[in-house]
Amino acid sequence: MNIRRGDPSDSERIRRVSARSCRLAYEEILDDKTLIETIEDPEMTETIREWLDETHDDDRVIYLVACGDGEIWGFAQVLTGERAPGRVDDEEAYLKSLYVHPDRWGSGVGSELLSTAIDRLSDRITRLSLDVLVDNDIGRRFYEKHGFKQVGTGGYEVSGVRYDTVIYEKSLVGRP
User: Fold this and answer.
1) Domain N-acetyltransferase, which positions (predicted)?
2) Distance separating the N- and C-terminal Cα atoms of the chain
3) What is the pTM of this model?
4) Architecture of domain 2-126
């Protein structure tokens, strides 16, 4: 497996990983399919491409892809500073997304993406936070296994539909 910075040319493959992962993880827990439909929309490829192009040289964005066999197996995106407005202070990073293709669940891809993203954070970052859908047991188990602790609840809105989340945080003090 190779973990590298995401590139605009990866956009369609990233969208497909996201769509497949979301469908399997969320279809049983979401009453409204708006979130899944949004992620599965082929126009999302252009949104991803634009984001990767815009943030390519931005040190406040870590966007990694895990590759193997000519495919993208997963991706992770960590934001700091103004890239995560209202979400973090100067010592905190925010894990915006981490998705692994379901064919690779349990193979260590997600763990490697998370570890690599943390390694690439500035030493001034002392904690990492994230949101997970309340009923996303797969995601919650993954983050708890990696030392994240629940610190609150929140939510976000997509196309007028509110999704409740659990907020997790992990201390990065003393990381190697």
Assistant:
1) 1-173
2) 22
3) 0.91
4) 3-Layer(aba) Sandwich (3.40)
